[in-house]
Amino acid sequence: MKINWGTAIVIAFVCFISFIMYFVITMSTDSKYEHDLVIDDYYGQELQFQADLDHEENSKNLKSNVSFKKTNEGIVITFPEDLEIDKIKGKVFLYRPSNKQLDFETQISLSNHNLLIPDKRLLDGRWNIKVDWKYNTNSYLFKKEITY
Prior knowledge:
Elements: H1 5-29, H2 42-47, H3 49-60, E1 67-70, E2 74-78, E3 88-95, E4 104-107, E5 114-118, E6 126-135, E7 138-147
Antiparallel strand pairs: 1-2, 2-5, 3-4, 3-6, 6-7
């Protein structure tokens, strides 16, 4: 059987369209290709965005901001030395972009100006750290991307 160039073009189009349809159907139905929003409460977080910007600006106005360092025991978060530790309240949230199940939050409870996030809770890789804290009536926010 002889195929002319018009029939060959139609066959090529049908094969190409079949491949694209297979690809689209596979990507939309296979659970390993699920693409969810990064966080569940995306719109609630968006409404909180301006308050976060204000809290970050408050942090920049401090004499010294929150800092962190990686040690063998984990991550040590250091709060400003000129503040009284019993008036510091808040939480630390560690977010793992690659795996939602590894995210965790811990309350700030200080005995000195350092807070230790234990090594056993952290896997190697990229983390986003967010320290949301209050001192007296002022709110502060420290955000940083770290590689552990």
